What we know:
Elements: H1 5-11, E1 19-20, E2 26-27, E3 32-35, E4 38-50, E5 66-70, E6 77-79, E7 84-94, E8 99-105, H2 107-110, E9 114-117, E10 126-135, E11 141-143, E12 148-156
Antiparallel strand pairs: 1-7, 2-3, 3-4, 4-5, 4-7, 4-12, 6-11, 7-10, 8-12, 9-10
Amino acid sequence: MLLCDHEIKKLCEGRKPMISPFIDHQEGELSYGLGPAGYDIRLNNRFAFPLSGGFVILDPRYKAELKVITLAEGEPLLLGPHCWVLAESLETFQMPDNIAGHILLKSSYARLGLILCAAAIEPGWRGRLVLELFNASNHAIRLYPMQGIAQVQFFRLNNPEMTYETKARKRWQDQTGI
């Protein structure tokens, strides 16, 4: 079942909030905060690019060599045509054992040719989201840190037997940074 605003808000109150920092309304030109059927997350100001030059092989079994940059406050990132970048959410998540999340790119960016690739947020997972952003257009796209980038929709599961915390390999548990 897809959770609505008041159900999400309830999960974000108290001693162990699901989202932190949590904003209980919509703010910003590229909106962020609680919406009627999800939570709009913000883009942080750290980005990682694959090292370029020569022949580069990217392999999911090995950590890639990435160049990480941190932008000054208010500075946008210019993502070139047909380029990709790893980014992180400003918000940190502590998913309850019976809640999963699905991440969708905001339409303001999708209309420009930006594509978001991100895994589902599993029950029991904790950390900051890493977002893979690809510019499929022939033009550069500006990305604005501290503004909305994507919406997370939350779903209640009926007593799952396994959570991210109980998996044998918890590679991305307590993820901070790219």
